Amino acid sequence: MRVFLFLLGFGLMVVGSTYIITYLNLFSFGYTFKEFIFFIFKRYECLYVLIGLSLVTITIYWKGESNGLYL
Q: Rg of the chain over CA atoms, in angstroms?
C-alpha cells in the first residue's frame, strides 16, 4: 500500500512539474513573476505537485505496523 501511494505521489509530482515548466513560456508573453504564480495556483493540474508532495511525505513518515522481526 505504501509503495503504491509513493509511486502515485511521485507520478503526480512529475505531471504537475511538467505543466509548470511548460507554463514558463508565459514569461515570453510579458507575464510578471507575480502574475505567473497566481496563474499557476489557479490551474488545477499544477496543484498536482502539492498533492503528490503531500502523498510522498505521508508515505515516507507513516509508521507501519511492526512485525517483530529484527534482522
A: 17
